[in-house]
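Many introductory courses stop at the sequence. We go one step further.
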Amino acid sequence: VARDEAKTFGLRVTSEFLLEQFPALPAAMENFRKTLNPSGRVQAEALVKGVLKPSISSQPVLTARFQDVSLTLPNDQKIEKAAGSLRWQPDLLTVTEVRGEFMEKPFSLEGSVVNFIQPEVDARLSWNELSAEAQMTIDPSRVQLHEVKGAIGSGQYRLFGEVAWPQANLLAEGTIHVQELPKLWPKVFSTVE
């Protein structure tokens, strides 16, 4: 804790742990651990800066860097060798340079979520022959896709509209080369020629 004449303070806490050896968690997080069977190393840092006078106000920031993380999804697909960083502060989550393997193919993910009450998502994803950039807004009743664009193999696509489950009003345009789909999902498209 640091203090000065301006009555400011700062507190920094760091920790390093293995996901598979993480101590007892609240019930909801324990279910997450049982479902995904996570493993890997995490380095976490919590930083709080603030002012003591005229009233206490603070700005918390939590940063987590992880490496060699593995998760088993409910359909028994695995995310493996994942590394990257997450940064949380009030009303902002940033995902930076997350890389790993999904279905034995490399993937990368980065982006941000702003305004947790009505989240605004800006994300970039690539996996195998698929890439996507997405800008969307999410509220309790609908998802507004401002734009989702990217590539599947050598084809390009663009999608926008609104999803208000169970209804959707979407517009899609682009080209997908059907003969390239077996590269993306060989088990699903093994009969496509």
